[in-house]
Specification:
Layout lengths: L1 E3 L7 H8 L2 E5 L9 E3 L9 E4 L12 H6 L4 E4 L10 E5 L3 H14 L4 E6 L4 H12 L5 E3 L9 H6 L8 E5 L7 H9 L3 E4 L7 H4 L2 H8 L11 E5 L3 H4 L8 E4 L7 E8 L4 E7 L2 E8 L4 H16 L4 H9 L9 E5 L2 E6 L5 H18 L3 E6 L8 H14 L4 E5 L3 H10 L7 E4 L5 H9 L7 E5 L7 H6 L14
Parallel strand pairs: 3-4, 4-5, 5-6, 7-9, 7-10, 8-9, 10-11, 11-12, 12-13, 17-21, 18-19, 18-21, 19-20
Antiparallel strand pairs: 1-3, 2-6, 13-14, 14-15, 16-17
Helix pairs in contact: 3-6, 4-10, 4-11, 10-11, 12-13, 13-14
Length: 481
């Protein structure tokens, strides 16, 4: 990932001052300004600032010479470069990742853009994309690309601010306490959004209450006159003293400032009404299915309203929304409708996806089928939550169930106990053999069926879809691997 400095080029002296580092000059390097920032030496071009980040797999300091050879005019490093020739400057710091954040914070201070920060257990990226889709109708908008929502990705997004940018929508993810705190102090948002509190990262944080407190760290960087926008249907947020004065969005909450009503799902879209500020927007349309997407869209509508956007621009932005990555892609393949949602999974998003599956199958007159892969990072509650997943699939009348991963047996057994016919349940515990799961699906799926494919990112369930290339004879027997 590389960020072009279109708001302002930076001198080595300015960079050193911004990050609190010591400037070392090699040759004539101090005279060259930086026009872009990269942390991967392969992305370095002329006059890049190369930030030598220590990663899990490699150390960026090993590639400083390559970066300079490729045109880097300045590097941020934790030690002075050795055996590197050329005209460049080096800013020496204690921690390159923190220095990158400080640089981004400085760059953000040069912009008048309104920063909207989004966090939450489920739906962060989709909500971010909905908000950007809406604000883009009225303002030049920069947003976090893909899922670059960590201590490196967020600074890189802020470093891509342009002179004409009026709104920046940034996503903040986390796996432990303190991470959102650090990012929000860099971004200093004008609007902070918390989508929900789920069970993702239970392994690290231990409870939903702890997850809630970690998400609420976003307030620490919120500007004094900023707006906190939270899910009014989440008791952990509404009852927290830190949320006093927050704006609420919701479907059920009687006190929601932005409330969705009369929700209707159609074949490829959802239509609903919204009441806010003594106004009513009738038949708001989004090209996505599921109540979880109503929440996501409602958040974007609220942000648009807070920014003073008119109704037609808000409607237009919601209608133009496009999902990113492998989130709820719906398409037809060999007579089977596939709902591909392989980006990630948690108990909350799994239930939402199954609800979409059943609704879609009902509208098409098809049979609901689901490949459900492992949900990761659930800690000691993992087995219980996978058991509950199997039960939920059965309760929702999923007719064909393909269980994939180490917890596959748990999901399968729970579903069978709750009524899914054993001959329609297939189990593959070895995710290194996606073709085995693909064969099970191809041997039992039929024309007209609707197939959901969902799992945590580490399961790579999309490889099963890639392996589904040739039709196989139907086999209704339960098969194990």
């Amino acid at each position: 990932m590389k960020s072009e400095l279109k708001l302002k080029e930076l001198s080595p002296v300015e960079i050193a001052d911004a990050v609190g580092g010591r400037l070392a000059v090699y040759g004539l390097g101090v005279s060259r300004k930086v026009t872009n920032v990269a942390y991967d030496s392969r992305d370095v071009t002329a006059d890049s600032l190369f930030c030598a980040v220590k990663g899990e797999r490699t150390d960026g300091h090993l590639y400083i010479a390559d970066a300079v050879k490729s045109g880097a005019s300045c590097v941020i490093a934790e030690r002075e470069p050795e055996n590197v020739t050329g005209d460049f400057s080096a800013v020496i710091v204690d921690d390159t990742v923190k220095a990158l954040g400080r640089l981004a914070g400085y760059y953000r201070s040069l912009s008048d853009a309104v920063v909207v920060a989004v966090t939450g257990s489920v739906g962060k990226t989709t909500t971010k994309d909905f908000i950007a889709s809406v604000t883009s109708e009225s303002f030049v908008t920069v947003k976090t690309e893909g899922n670059h929502n960590n201590e490196i990705g967020l600074p890189m997004t802020l470093l891509s601010l342009t002179a004409d940018c009026r709104v920046a929508v940034v996503e903040m993810g986390m796996s432990s306490r303190g991470e959102i705190s650090a990012m929000t102090k860099i971004a200093r948002p004008d609007i902070a959004v918390i989508t929900n509190i789920g069970t993702s990262h239970m392994a690290n944080l231990g409870s939903r209450e702890n997850i809630c407190e970690a998400k609420l760290e976003i307030i620490e960087g919120l500007r004094r006159d900023g707006t906190l926008l939270i899910n009014g249907d989440e008791p952990l947020l509404v009852s927290n003293g830190k949320c006093i004065g927050a704006k609420l969005f919701g479907i059920h909450s009687p006190s929601a400032d932005y409330k969705a009503m009369n929700i209707k799902s159609e074949s490829d879209r959802t239509v609903f009404d919204v009441v806010y500020s003594n106004r009513a927007l009738i038949n708001v349309e989004i090209p996505a299915l599921g109540r979880h997407n109503v929440y996501n869209a409602l958040t974007a509508l609220a942000v648009g309203a807070i920014l003073g956007m008119d109704e037609e621009h808000i409607r237009s932005g919601l209608k133009k929304f496009k999902s990113s990555g492998m989130r709820q892609r719906i398409y037809e393949k060999g007579g089977v409708t596939i709902i591909e949602d392989c980006y990630n999974a948690s108990p909350e998003s799994m239930r939402a996806a199954i609800e979409v599956l059943v609704s879609k199958a009902k509208s098409m007159g098809g049979v609901p089928a689901a490949l459900l892969g492992d949900m990761l990072e659930l800690g000691e509650d993992s087995r219980l939550m996978h058991d509950q997943l199997g039960q939920f699939a059965a309760q929702m009348k999923v007719k064909k169930l393909y269980c994939y991963g180490q917890m596959a047996e748990t999901v399968a057994e729970a579903a069978i106990k709750k009524g899914v016919r054993a001959e329609n349940v297939y189990v593959c515990t070895d995710i290194s053999k996606p073709e085995v799961m693909a064969d099970m699906i191809l041997g039992s799926i039929e024309t007209g069926d609707v197939l959901l494919v969902k799992a945590s990112r580490g399961i790579a369930a999309e490889k099963v879809l890639e392996a589904m290339k040739r039709p196989l004879p139907k086999n209704n027997g339960r098969r194990r691997s």
